[in-house]
Amino acid sequence: xxxxxxxxxxxxxxxxxxxxxxxxxxxxxxxxxxxxxxxxxxxxxxxxxxxxxxxxxxxxxxxxxxxxxxxxxxxxxxxxxxxxxxxxxxxxxxxxxxxxxxxxxxxxxxxxxxxxxxxxxxxxxxxxxxxxxxxxxxxxxxxxxxxxxxxxxxxxxxxxxxxxxxxxxxxxxxxxxxxxxxxxxxxxxxxxxxxxxxxxxxxxxxxxxxxxxxxxxxxxxxxxxxxxxxxxxxxxxxxxxxxxxxxxxxxxxxxxxxxxxxxxxxxxxxxxxxxxxxxxxxxxxxxxxxxxxxxxxxxxxxxxxxxxxxxxxxxxxxxxxx
Length: 322
Ligand SMILES: [Zn+2]
What we know:
Layout: E1 2-8, H1 32-38, E2 42-45, E3 48-51, E4 56-58, H2 60-71, E5 86-87, E6 92-97, H3 101-118, E7 123-124, E8 131-136, H4 141-145, E9 154-162, E10 169-178, H5 183-197, H6 226-235, H7 246-252, E11 253-255, E12 268-272, E13 279-283, E14 290-293, E15 309-311, E16 316-317
Parallel strand pairs: 4-11, 5-10, 6-7, 6-8, 8-10
Antiparallel strand pairs: 1-9, 2-3, 9-10, 12-13, 13-14, 14-15, 15-16
Helix pairs in contact: 2-6, 3-5
Bound molecules: zinc ion.
Zinc ion binds at residues 5, 7, 74, 192, 196, 202, 212.
């Protein structure tokens, strides 16, 4: 069983584009005296005992965002009953193709951040691995992924394999990253596709790393947002399990928390200077004239210090306009 998640690219033109871990539950059996009475309240999932009255306090938004990011397939498959998909062992990552030094750095940082978020230990290996990441031209995506049904505008694609005997248990992943895309775009694609590889689907929150649209309003950041961290952490919470469907998830995630993460604003945009191939990351705000930086080697912190350009949303200039 496999699915392919397509992620469309961001067209850049002149000015365009666009947990905390809950406590680890122990799978203890109820005290013997109460065992019979409680037997109906517990269930065995992949060798772990889950108590039916276990709940995790979330906000209403977190519950909705979790259901969207985990149980709304990035590619619709009407015949399939969506369930939580996650690893039950630590996956290794192997790279092939022609990654740049910056690609290697991004993969290292992305595997580290997804490891911290999920509690998995995702390691790079020169040998055989459960997750194969291919840096190839878009024209080679179909070959790499072994399917012809691909979105031709995709700059990244991920195909995960599910254990046929254990619903929702991911056993493998093939990731294709377009090496003919801009480096700054690839930075985002790498983190996004590895998000798919660990079991996340798409988000409608424009500041989420897992926003799968090609909407110019979406974030160009390449690290997980607070929402991504919260949902990724919940996906691997021991009180949930691979194979849970929406009914089982909503039973565990109870919207009783007074505060939690929200869909934050998109705070950066990618801008190309007219007449050149030079790209800038510019602060996005209500201000008319906003600072930009041409240093795309790392994700900017806001406010941008020592800006080397300014944008008014339509044009770039080398000094702020009055
Ligand atoms: Zn995607």
